[in-house]
Amino acid sequence: MEEIKKVLIDSPIRKNIGDNIPFKKLISKNLDEIMESLEILEKKEKSPLNIVIVGEVKSGKSSLVNAILSKEVSEVDVLEATSSIIEISYGEKETRANIEGVEKVYLDREFLKRVNIVDTPGLKSITDRNEQKTLNYIQNADLILFLFDATHLGQEDIYDTLDLISTYKKPMAGIVNKADLLEDDRLDVLEYIKDEYSIYIEDFFMISAYMEYQDRISKQASIGDADLVISDYDDLRENFQNLDKYIEEVCNNCESIKDSSIRSSLEGIIHKEIIHHHDYLKSINIILGELNKYEGLIEKKCEYINDKMNFEISDWINRVFLGDELYKINDNIANARLYINEDYINETINRKKNDLDSIYFKEWNECLKEIEYEVDESIKKSVDNIEYKKEILNAPNIKIDDSNINLNDLLATLGTGAVLGATSGGIISIYSSAIGSSAASLTIGNALLAYCPPLLIAGTITGGLGKLIYEKVKMEQKNNDIILEINRFVEQLKLDVAKSLSEGYENSSKEIIDKTKEMFSVNKGISIDKCEAETFCESIDSYIKNLEKYIIN
After folding, report:
1. In this protein, which residues make up the domain named G (predicted)?
2. Contact 48, 106 (CB under 8 A)
3. 461 DSSP 8-state letter
């Protein structure tokens, strides 16, 4: 136990739970539950053996407890004799106390030093609360005595109850009670019960707990007028003596039984630890794979968008930019003063830039939505295709401090589905959050503007050749040289504007890629870099392999 505890504490996730490990809130809850189960098991290791008596209401559980202890501990002959759990333990003085709805009874009986006996209110009791209490005690039982009412057999709910109890993998003996009230042959009834329930129970004892209880306490069997009495009680008394011997044998072997029970529960805890780590690792690997996919897709989209923008820029520069203006200047040099000035050129460039911006951000908007949808659909498909059943079908049921979790519940709630489910949500909402409270109505193109400021072209006329031409234009010198110089100036200006616009959009694209990669990682719950994530996953994989050594089967 101590060795396993040290191994579990050394889990890579537990060791780093205070750091920025992915989905630590989701996985830490599961891992805390594992450690709580281990603590309960540690206490169980030091506690007496637990024998839990289970059966339907009025099946004679209380009479059985009283007969076993040769003392009236539980009330009988009332509508619901045991309305709460009665836990009987060893005590030097006989005392009773009600603690959180459980009746604690302490008796000076030697075998109670090794054994606790628990009388339950019944699985089909008046309240759901009572039924849940019984289930909780069954989970901590080392031996279950299941009572059948010999006068009331074949009920469907008995099968349902035994199906449920059998999932706990606990030793169980069948007690066929009220045999003194049988009209039919008792052997036929016993054979019927064995045929019906031997798949759940190996040992059966046919008894009359009530008559044994009366005999042991008063030495006189006191029976009601309406009871059907049989004359040969000796065989039922002998059966009860055999039950006593069975319980005594259990007591004598309680340490080995407890050890076996604890080993089974401990193995179950390890199974669950492996399942949680395995599913967590699977989840992280799926998400990391999708992040890599996202980065690859966005890089390809970036190439496409840059090519499209370069085409739009080149087409405008070569076909449109200052074409009409040059024609008018060639026709009348006086027009040069209208067009070869900084205000006009910048207005022309930035008017086109606004159109290009619209194209650019529309492309990125559609691109990010398309990529995100594709990645999210891939993650959802991964969730749909996950098959837990092959991995955990043979794992024992191990949640020992609360109600039973069956396979279907386990399949529905384990790590991968929860982790991957937590990755839903859009990049657009992340951008909006980053921009501010008023950003809810923004398109992603508008949001991206916060990261990619407008690409302004300025200073086109203030230096070098531009300044010289501008001076000549002001003097309205019309000659071939000035026309050639203007044409050369415009050609160079085209190159500069095209380069400036192209580089501006490419730089903005790089910033968009960096920001969206970062935001997508955060949105999908990954707050560590790839290298750290890979190292973390490798450590989890090694941890799982180490844990598997402690599983016997």
Report:
1. 51-178
2. no
3. S
pLDDT in tens, 211-223: 888 877 765 444 5
Closest by CA to 50, choosing from 105, 98, 118, 3, is 118
* The two structure tokens encoding residue 469: 């031409």
Q: For the chain, count helices (H), then strands (E).
A: 21, 8
How many angstroms from the chain centroid is the CA of residue 434?
28
CA 321 to each of CA 139, 347, 484, 490, 510: distance values in angstroms, whole numbers, following the listed order? 82, 12, 17, 9, 27
Under a CB-based contact definition with an 8 Å cutoff, are residues 88 and 119 in contact? yes
- Tens digit of each residue's pLDDT (9 = 90 or more) over 25-44: 777 788 888 888 888 788 77
CA distance linking residue 80 with residue 84, whole number of Å: 10
The pTM assigned to this predicted structure is 0.53
Asked if 495 and 544 count as a contact pair (C-beta separation under 8 A), the reply is no
Half-sphere exposure of 268 (CA within 13 A, CB side): 22
CA distance 542 to 553: 20
Q: Would you call 257 helix, strand, or coil by DSSP? A: helix
In the chain, residues under CATH classification 3.40.50.300 are 48-252
Q: Which CATH number is 48-252's, of 3.40.50.970, 3.30.390.10, 3.40.50.300, 2.170.120.30?
A: 3.40.50.300
Instruction: Tell which residue, 273, 264, 285, has the closest CA to residue 414.
Output: 273
* Residues 6 or more apart whose Cβ sits within 8 Å of residue 124: 56, 57, 131, 157, 161
546: Cα separation from own chain's centroid: 23
H/E segment holding residue 203: strand 203-206
Q: Quote the CA–CA distance of 318 and 313 in Å, as a whole number.
A: 9
Query: What distance in Å separates the CA atoms of residue 119 and residue 361, rounded to the nearest whole number?
Result: 72
Tokens, residue 45:
């290791």
Of the candidates 356, 238, 371, the residue with the CA atom closest to the CA atom of residue 300: 371
DSSP 336-385: HHHHSSHHHHHHHHHHHHHHHHHHHHHHHHHHHHHHHHHHHHHHHHHHHH
Strands 102-107 and 95-99: antiparallel
Residue 230 and residue 93 in contact, taking contact as beta carbons nearer than 8 Å = no
- 187-230 pLDDT, tens digit per residue, is 888 998 999 898 889 899 999 988 888 877 765 444 554 444 44
Is 304 a residue whose pLDDT tops 90? yes
393 residue type, one letter: L
Instruction: Work out whether the CA dihedral 318, 322, 325, 330 comes out positive or negative.
Output: negative
Closest CA to 128 of 407, 403, 409: 403
Q: Which residue has the tokens 């537990």?
A: 14
Q: How many CA atoms lie within 13 A of 510 on its CB side?
A: 5
Q: For 457-529, where are the alpha helices, taking DSSP H only?
A: 464-474, 480-523
